[in-house]
Amino acid sequence: MLTKIRLRAVQHASNVCGDIEGFDFNDYDADDIAAVRKFWLQYGVVRFKKAGITDAQQVQFSHHFGEFVIHPKQLQEGGHPTHPEILVISNAMKDGKPSGAMGNSEATWHTDTWFYERPPAGAILRAVAVPPSGGDTYFLSTYIAYDTLPAPLKNAVDGRQIFFQNVYDKTGKLRLGKSTPKSQDFREWSGIVHPLVRTHGETGRKALYLGGTTEGAWIVGMSRDESDALLAELWDHTTNTKHIFVQQWDEGDIMMWDNRCTMHRRDSFDPASIRIMHRTTTSGERPV
């Protein structure tokens, strides 16, 4: 069977994002899914423009890329009323309460749930309603970040591990099920250790793994000052790059990213506007 998919590179760098054209969400087979997976692994981020699919179709499509993962925000304000696989990201209010997660504020650079033992492999985000401006999503490749490291930095990260505390989120709120730690040193808190450079489980390529913040992150075996200085340098190198894809959303757009080799962020937007996104998340391996 001939694949129905044609791929073209979009903006900045060909391995940051690729548009997938010709995919029929009402009629696809195993060969089509294999082609999508190939492009997803090649680019790290792929986009389906104005796909206009339903929640049920999104859940069914996502199922082909791994077991579902419940995002922590789904256990709080981001649960979907009929599809437990879907995280609702929305600033809309219902009965005086948020109808989804994240509101209208900026989301800074991060990989998803970096503080998990097994962070998710992928995410599929669909635009249900978009504001007239703002709320753009930015993507970068942590393959590129690693590949372009100057030799001294590449030597500095080789074989290193990074500790992430998992007690507080990026806003300073206690995570679900956590209690206030007694120690002032976050290195003594509950957390997880991952390689600072992870090897992708499917492509075999190396990528920097910086998580989602320098707060509560420590390069194991270094002093706090040494670790903070190196992490600041790595974050600056990774995020100050021309290799960034900017997604300006249209209703029905779908972005699908590989959480093992990308980072993303979101612009804030006018709280008087409504932005509703539905997201599914698929399971991943423990970083190595």
In short:
Residues 20-281 form the TauD/TfdA-like domain. With 288 residues, the chain is an alpha+beta fold. Helices cover 18% and strands 27% of the residues.
Describe the model:
It is built from five helices and 19 strands. The chain has 288 residues and is α+β, with helices and mostly antiparallel strands. The protein has a domain of 98 residues: Double-stranded beta-helix (4-Layer Sandwich), CATH 3.60.130. The strands form five sheets. The chain has an eight-stranded mixed sheet with strand order 1-2-3-17-9-19-4-7, with helices on one face. A hairpin with a 6-residue loop joins β13 and β14.
Largest sheet: 8 strands, mixed
How many beta-strand elements? Answer: 19
CATH topology name of one domain: Double-stranded beta-helix
Strand neighbour order, sheet with most strands: 1-2-3-17-9-19-4-7
Helix proportion range: 10-25%
- Estimated radius of gyration: 19 Å
Under the CATH scheme, which class of one domain? Answer: Alpha Beta
Shape: globular
Strand share of the residues? 25-35%
Q: How many alpha or pi helices?
A: 5
CATH architecture annotation of one domain: 4-Layer Sandwich
Roughly how many Å apart are the termini?
36 Å
Helix-strand sequence? EEHEHEEEEEEEHHEEEEEHEEEE
Broad structural category = alpha+beta
Under CATH, the homologous superfamily of one domain reads Clavaminate synthase-like
Low-confidence stretches: 7-12
Mean pLDDT: 91
Task: Please tag this protein with its features.
288 residues; Double-stranded beta-helix; alpha+beta; eight-stranded mixed β-sheet; four-stranded antiparallel β-sheet; metal-binding; 5 helices; single chain
